[in-house]
Amino acid sequence: MSETTLDLKGLKCPLPALKTRKAMTRLAEGDHLVVLTTDPMAEIDIPHFCQENGHALLSRERTDFGHRFLLSKGG
């Protein structure tokens, strides 16, 4: 299992979800992806992306800069 960080701060919808999707294709099942965003829509888009694509949203939190999501790639 590996963990990768994807810094998407400053990008606006739909780019955070699209770049998250692309990054997940490069991971093996069970790998973790940390996604950092500033776009308010990411609070809706990232969990929806996980639900629709079989990935697990392990955690999400608001930070000083925006949001931090921890995803696990599903099969």
UniProtKB/TrEMBL annotation:
Kindly list any coiled-coil regions of this protein.
none
Q: Where is the UPF0033 domain?
A: 6-30
Which InterPro entries did the record assign? TusA-like (IPR001455), TusA-like_sf (IPR036868)
**Assigned keywords, A-Z:** Transferase
> Which N-terminal residues, if any, form the signal peptide?
none
Q: Return the EC number.
A: 2.8.1.-
GO molecular function list = transferase activity
User: One Pfam family from the UniProt entry?
Assistant: TusA
Family statement drawn from the similarity comment of this UniProt entry: Belongs to the sulfur carrier protein TusA family.
- What is the protein's given name? Sulfurtransferase TusA
The organism that produces this protein has a lineage beginning with:
Bacteria, Pseudomonadati, Pseudomonadota, Alphaproteobacteria, Hyphomicrobiales
Chain's gene name: tusA
